[in-house]
Amino acid sequence: MQKKPKVLIIDDETAVEKAMKKALKNEGYALSFAANGKEGLEQMRKEVPDLIFLDLKMPVMGGIEFLDTIAIKPDDPYLVVVITGHGDDREVEDSFKRGVNFFLRKPLSMVEVTCLARRCIQVKATEAELRRHRDQLEELVEERTEALRDQLFFQQQLIDSMPFPLFYKDRDGVYLGCNNLFAEAMGETREAIVNKTDKDLDRRGMARELQRRDKNVLRGRVNAYESRMIFEDGVRHDVMVYKSAFSDSRGEVAGMVGALLDISDRKQYEEDIASRTAELEDANMALRVLLKQVNTTRTEMEEKVLSNIKDLVLPYLDYLDEMVTGEKPVFFLQTLRANLTKVTSVFSKRLSSRYIGLSPREIQIANLVRLGKTNKDSARMLNITKNAVEFHRNNLRRKLGLKNKKVNLRSYLLSLEKSK
Questions:
Q1: Strand positions, DSSP E, 263-414
Q2: Looking at the whole model, is its pTM more than 0.70?
Q3: 216-275, pLDDT tens digit by residue?
Q4: What are phi and psi of 238, to 5 degrees?
Q5: Would 124 be classed as within a structural domain?
Q6: How many domains does the chain have?
Q7: Does residue 6 carry a pLDDT above 70?
Q8: Is there a single domain that holds both residue 390 and residue 273?
Q9: Contact indicator for 199, 212 with CB cutoff of 8 Å
């Protein structure tokens, strides 16, 4: 149920009271009356009205004194209409000074009373509605402001948690914000960086280059490049700079965000690797030279050994051939010659290099087989049994890949000696 507007009439004249009742009886107002300002104040203490009709000249407390007491304020829930007689312009002026904006002249017009009451009630109702909307708006603004404040706090906490320097600017290159690591690297507080440009911050002569690169980013290009920067610690750092443009709600480029990744350790590691590689290449070159010298020396020594055997040993073997008689001495002499030949032959080198798995005894048997000695001859020469010789011959065939093949062992061994 809608609440009735309350109208307080403060006047000491009975005729005015009757006229007011008659004029407002059909308006649906809750009317109350007071004979002077003092009674009017008592009525207001009981219930605050929406509208006050106030006579200025009354006993006990007049209208001006009443106005001084209530001290009208713009947000009061009521309006005051002063009732005055003709010729009271001075009192009207005094009432204006005290915040009164509406007046009625005696004798009262019922239509004027009714219309003015309606207007005043409507004005106050409109003001109350506006006040409610204003309060709601202020509350909404406060809520939105608090939400925005929380969002900005979370955003700052988020970028501060990044393990690398991070910043963001508007399209004019003005810093909008950064994290603590970026501020520390620049040797500034965050407050000293925000709303400044690189030129304002005097980025060690890099402002022009940074502005050039920022323009490329704002044209829609993601920019990533290596750079060297001197941070506040005074040390030159190798950094990887990443920059990217961001857009506003209309899809237009509004600024850019950037991050710095310190790659000094990686660059140092790369330099160390390059230096180490160069050292290894030098060492390899020296090793190749040394190996070449070793091969040359080895070749010279082999040639010298062969020459010495030919000049110092073989002539004496020829003398022994003429002097030695008897089957065993002749055999040993032949074996000695064969072994000397073996030392210098391709056969021995090929046999030992291609078939490293042969035992010393198997190599002895192979040499005797190559010389055409039977199993019995080989057993007698090596002082072992015939069965042992057969055992080693079988091992030779297996290791040389001849087992279960119709290949003569002596022919195969002789082919090794002839092959180059």
A1: none
A2: no
A3: 888 876 677 777 776 666 667 788 888 888 888 888 888 889 888 888 778 778 778 888
A4: -85, 125
A5: yes
A6: 4
A7: yes
A8: no
A9: no
